[in-house]
Each structure stands twice: as structure tokens, then as C-alpha cells.
Amino acid sequence: MSRTKVVPIPVMGRHNINAYLLLGRRPVIVDAGTPGSGRRIAEQVASHGVDPADVSLIVVTHGHIDHFGSAAELHRLTGAPVAGHVADLGPFRTGRAREPYLPTGRMGRLMARNKNLHLRVEPFEPGVLVTGETDLDDFGVAARIMPTPGHTAGSVSVLTGEGDLVAGDLIANSFFGLIPGRPANPPFHDDPLLNLASLRRMLDLNPTRLHVGHGTPLEPDRVRRWASREHRRLSRLGAAGRIRARTDGAGAL
């Protein structure tokens, strides 16, 4: 089976918001960026020698508009179906993230005031509905979609045969990607404890590197150390009754 190469596609800044191009027998795009970035993503795909019309699939990692904002546009530009998890169908079908956002810290509290996070973007209907672990061999890459709920109910990651984990917002770099290589929570999590459990489950699979939605790739051992500290921190907050988690579930519309 051919090797799958992971190529970052910057959507905003150098590393602030990333999509990814998976190169195997056929190309796959992971994440669709902010609204209005579909053409930029397609042009960057072409700059890597790939005809956007050859893209076999667009995987959306979760229902926040900086990850699915241009999914409908990118679908039109490539003709590729979009894959998304059933638990985030609500945001995909309405074009709105579930609110209120639940900040993980000061950065999230500041960002939650940004009106751009509360926009309605063009909705889409996934052509490939993810309900569990999903092999992508039929789409031309040696990789699997792995459900990793917690950031949102329908969050997923993509694990290649070589061990590269395209992790969406399962983990991020500090300050929304501004401090490279330093693991941190993204600004929001719907369920911090569930997200940490998903992260540790992925780490148990011994990935070689974590490619994130916000920032540069992360080394697994450094993420493991961070996860241990985060477990202790969340345990203290949980004992004090200070962990906020979304309780409205997911469910399709």
C-alpha cells in the first residue's frame, strides 16, 4: 500500500488555522477552513501538483466554523464528497456552531466575544456520514477516520498508516498556534474530560506526530507529559465542581 504524506495547508497566518492535504493513491483534504477560504485551499492544493478535481474526499474534523466554514464551497470546487460525523450534523446543516462556546481559559473567553465566531456560514450535507472508525482506503489513502469526541460531540481525527495523526482541535499549540510546538487546549471544548480521554486514547496508538488545526506539529511525548498535567488540573477542577461541559448532546437535526 502506498505511503500517505501529510501536507499542511495554511488557511490563516502561517500556522493559526490549518487544513491538510493527504497524498496517497488519491488526494484527500482534511478540514475546510473559515468561510471564504475554499478557493485559497484549492489553489494551495494545486501548488502541490494536485488537480483539485482529483480530490476524492473532504474530511471535516468538527462543527466549528473555522473548520467547516468553506466545506460547501470546497465541495463545489473539487466535486469531492464531504465526510462529517453524525453527532455534528446540527452545525453542518444549520451553518452555525453550537452555542454558547465553552472557553477553556482566558484566550477562549476573549475569543468568544468575536462576532465572526457567531456568524451563520453556508451549510452542507455530508455525503459520507461518519458513525465510527472509518477506513479511507477506498478514497485512496492509507488512513482511518477516528472518532475523538470532546471538543465537540462529533469531533474526529485522521490516523495514517505511518502513524501521523491529523488531530483537528483535539490538541493545539499555545495561544491559538502562536507558540509553536507547545501543547495546549484550543480556546473551547464542549467536554474537557471527554476530550482528554479521546486524546489519551489516540496517544495509546503511538502516533509518530500530531498535526493540529492551530499551530505546528506536536511531538507525542511532549503531548503525553502535557496530558498528564492536564489530567491533574481537571481532577482538581472536577473535585471543586468547576468543570463546564455541554449537556445538550449532539444528535442530528
TrEMBL record:
The record ties this protein, via InterPro entries, to: Metallo-B-lactamas, NDM-1-like, RibonucZ/Hydroxyglut_hydro
Q: Where is the Metallo-beta-lactamase domain?
A: 16-214
Q: Name one Pfam family in it.
A: Lactamase_B
- SUPFAM superfamilies, from UniProt? Metallo-hydrolase/oxidoreductase
**PANTHER family given for it?**
METALLO-BETA-LACTAMASE DOMAIN-CONTAINING, METALLO-BETA-LACTAMASE DOMAIN-CONTAINING PROTEIN
Full protein name? MBL fold metallo-hydrolase
The species this protein was found in: Streptomyces virginiae (Streptomyces cinnamonensis)
